[in-house]
Amino acid sequence: MKEALILLHFNFQNQKILMQLRRLLLLITIFLTALQGYSQKNKASLNGVILTAGKPEEGVSVSLKGTSYATLTNDKGEYKLIAAPGNYILMVAYAGYKTKETAIILNESGKKVADITIEEDMATLNEVAVTGKSKVQRVREQAYNITAVDLKKTYNTSADLNQVLNKTTGVRIREYGGLGSAFNFSLNGFSGNQVKFFLDGVPMDSYGSALTLNNIPVNMAERIDVYKGVVPIELGADALGGAVNIVTNKNVNRYIDASYSYGSFNTHRAAVNTRFSGRDGFIANINAFANYSDNDYKVDVSVVDKTTSKFLPEQKYKHFHDAYKSGTIMAEAGFKNKSFADYLLVGFAIAGNKKEIQQGRTMQKVVGQAFTDSESFITSLKYKKDNLFTKGLSLNVNSTYALVNNRSVDTSSRVYDWTGNYVYRQFASAGDKGELGDKTIYVYDEANAQLTSNLKYQLNEQHSIALNYTYLGYKRKETDEYLKVVELGEPSIDKNILGFGYNFSGFDNRLAISAFGKMYDLSTKMISNAITQSASSTNYGYGATSAYHLSDKFQVKGSYEHAYRLPSAIEMLGDGLTVNSNIGLKPESSDNANFGLAFLTQQSKNHFSAETSLIYRQAKDFIREKQDGDKTVFENLQNVQITGIDGVFRYGFKDLLTFEINGTYQKSLNKNKFKTGTTSPDALYDAQLPNVPIFFGNADLTFNFKNIKYKDDRLSLNVSANYIDDFYLTWPVLGSLETKKAIPEQFTQNAMIAYSFLNGKYNLALECRNITDVKVYDYFKVQKPGRSFSVKFRYFLQ
Amino acid sequence: MFVNKFAKCFALACLSLSIFSCSSDNDSPSTEPVEPTVNGAKYVASYWLDDYTQYILDFSSIDQLMTGEISAKGVGIEQAGSCFPIDNTFFALSTDDEGAASFHLNTTGKLVQAGKLAFESSYAVGYTDDKKMINIGATWDGSSSDYELMIYNPVTVSIEGRKFNDFAVSADNKKVLHWPTGVAVSGDKLFVPVYTKDVSDGTNKVLSSDATIRVYKYPSLDYVTTIKDTRTTAIGMYYTNTGIVQTESGDIYTFSSNARAGGYPVTAAASGVLRIKKGDAKFDPGYFFNLEESSLKGKVLAAYPLGGEKVFISYIPTDVDAVNAVYSFLNTKTIFKSAILDLSAKTIVEVTGLPDHGGDEFFGLSSLFVENGKAYKSFVTGNEARVYQIDIATGTAKAGALIKEGLYLPSIGKLTY
């Protein structure tokens, strides 16, 4: 009832804005339709149906080779192209299928092409360069500033999604250590919760720490879409700096993909992904994976002499309390292609993890007993129906309800050193001191309800409108169970986000435009010193994106958004161990502008593509994590400006070779003229923010050899390198750079050799990371693992 | 980068030269300590910023403290901890995981770090006569009454002596404890002024007490006795180390605030100064400098030696103290005044030209620097903070450099090379 009332309230508030938006959109529509009508003179239409295994296939790329005429099939496998009469090669391409080319003559009266059936091509599942435009390429060509990461080429690596994403332009993932360690995902200067994560469009915020990017194996997904800046309203998020959507494999109807890898530091990773599709439309997916590592890698630190208190010279010591284990089972079942639903799926997931803690903020503080663990129980419902009631109207609803139990345990009086020896603490303060702070068994049970619903109406081929409503309800029950159970209260956070969007695509698909408005509503109930404080806020955001093909080789993109982000639970409430709470945290907002240029060409056997983008962000009440003694706390920084440029260059020679190099440069400046709440000048005006990477890049080279010993076998050799320039822990403008606390420059190289045979059924890969065994740091004085080896066996059956 | 490498090469060259010269010295063994030749000097200050970071700055001239602005933009060594100039080093005593660090000027006059050591706890510090420092580690919440006294040697950058001592007021009640507010060493005696607190209900309640000093042997750190004087109240304040001063004569003077501003429950006793004569281990019964009855009509919070028998004091008028918050010495509210005392002659010179200022915060002991009859110290005077130069003879203060990114210079010293 309460939710319904809130919704009603929103509708009322939103009506005014919607009215104005509608008027504006109507004008744009009329204008564009007129233009479109004009440009379509003297053109003929071409239509037909694409089938796979006798059934119509949705989302297949159909194009006239050598021209910019291209489209995708609808859910009935139908496509329609409008082009000048002439002779063409009709090219049909679909990921996982062999590309088909057919010569056609298009005269002025138009042409209906006979049904075309395309055949599956198992070999391409491992391919990088897909002839024509791959799904990944099509995603890249959307109006959004987006990087699509093709995971198919990484299926044989032992990497997790984090390690793969870390090679992407604009993305930098900073890790606190080995497998399962805490990490910070940053995208074009925004980081942490400013970037939102989705699994098939469903927000992952509520999934718990066992279901994060560093736990999920690459084999579970087909690709990852990285939205930089502007995020489509369908995702319904209050992302500020972008979003990451993990898209699972939906093309293959029945398969099993099982893998196991073993590597240095006693690291085991196992994953099974399988799908079953019955004839009657029944469908079942099961994904299960488990990770374990001792993380007993060596670090270079100095220990203290107990008599003289002197720091002794640096030596290598092994991590001795850093093991991590996690496991997840996700099952989903339901129906596909029924009259009442395109799909209706009910899912259940259970996940858990345990992380031993080895150190405090830096390696100088050694921890030997504290740990965290969590368990997540997630239920989900997914529903999609196209042409609901009327043609062109589609409804898509995702909802999840997740219960996550977390514990942070720090009850030891021991003071460890890097040899693994300990003494009992001599001095304590403020209560009984544990290894990281006051002794605690901090238990917090989270209940998350999430609903994302999208209603889309395709007015005609060029115009569509969309409505999104997202609800996120969060409740946390906190207790400290050290010595005696202390109820700390039940804070809650409710978010309602409403979005309205309009999409246009025309000029033979050369132009794509989207415009949208969003409303963000936040209400919180926080508890501080047993006093309940309630707060609420409503904010409005808006934006537009456009992409235009100057020719079939060049595309320009531009986008702008005024975005809001509501603080997350961890930012406001902390985690009881390493992050302190700040319940007064305000929502942050940002004006984001992107400009991008993409180039793609194919000359006989050589493929080239290049993309570059410029970013500009003006953020207010920017939420930043800062050091707070031994812990951290999130704070609002009044004005922050982020500017950046990134670029990627890709080259491929037939199927034999692919090469990619990318780089990102970004500046994050404090634009606060006066100290908060005063009229005295802020001495740090225009200064680069501390602890933010500035320049980084990646290079990747792969060779593929086919039919070496057996027919359809395949050998891949891959080398990759990763570079990041040094940056400073505290404000770089302060102090002499020579002696400042710096996170040093990193340059690491990885290599992999993979062999697949029986058409990709059996795969074996050997991998070495950090070949030269250099000291690597993402955080100040937190050393990451050195050289490591792993071997992965993968079995794939369709 | 090139410049950096060049500088490193240069430093290396100088270092090898100096090693060379040292080895030739060793050829002719001499038991006489050789006075190092002074090539130059620099002023070193720790600078506490609004964002709670601290930088160690160096200045080639004292004029740089008196003109323009003091800023850490592009200069300074980032280093946490309370800083103390000691035996031609600048010691940053930090209890952070990163450790405490000792700095000195190298042969080219560049401020460099010499060594690091770890402290688990530090609540009271003081200098010894033989150019060492005493640190007292303790448990703030009172869960243990065993505090550790240690001797820091700035030459070896290490702890060369340590001993635990039970700070309970009486052995049969471990919930009423002495808490150290500073340390002073005169000859073979180590004095630890304390206040009394009750930790039984976890609130760390400060109790009113007489002027109290725990006396130890130096350098053995063995406990000797506890001395008390009823003429005034507890000496010093929490964490400031500014309640006990040894003057040039070797006499020890102690300063009791009996002030709300110092965090105490005020009693009928007067705020004032007591003396322990050189070589004694008892308060001088013939000496009490009553400041509330003096022309200052105030309560002394902190004292800094100025050379001779003089000290610079920060005080609060008794009537102002009564209406202001407890622990005001931690605030920037401008309710404090300054004066110069001649302790032996019991004369007072009020400081003029220095506006009423904020408290000294936890930045005591080494925050005042004396050279050529002038004292230098930073003061918060409203929205801004500046260095002031005070003429010791006349008490006339002159405003100096503006402190840009923060409000405090917690420590100022001078090093030579």
Automatic annotation (TrEMBL), chain A:
GO terms for biological process: siderophore transmembrane transport. The keyword Signal applies. PROSITE patterns: TONB_DEPENDENT_REC_3. Pfam families: CarbopepD_reg_2, Plug. One of its GO terms (cellular component) is cell outer membrane. The keyword Membrane applies. Belongs to the TonB-dependent receptor family. This is Outer membrane cobalamin receptor. It comes from Flavobacterium cutihirudinis. The lineage of its organism: Bacteria, Pseudomonadati, Bacteroidota, Flavobacteriia, Flavobacteriales.
Automatic annotation (TrEMBL), chain B:
It comes from the Bacteria. InterPro entries: DUF4374. Keywords: Signal. The keyword Signal applies. Pfam families: DUF4374. Residues 1-24 form the signal peptide. This is Uncharacterized protein DUF4374. It comes from Flavobacterium cutihirudinis.
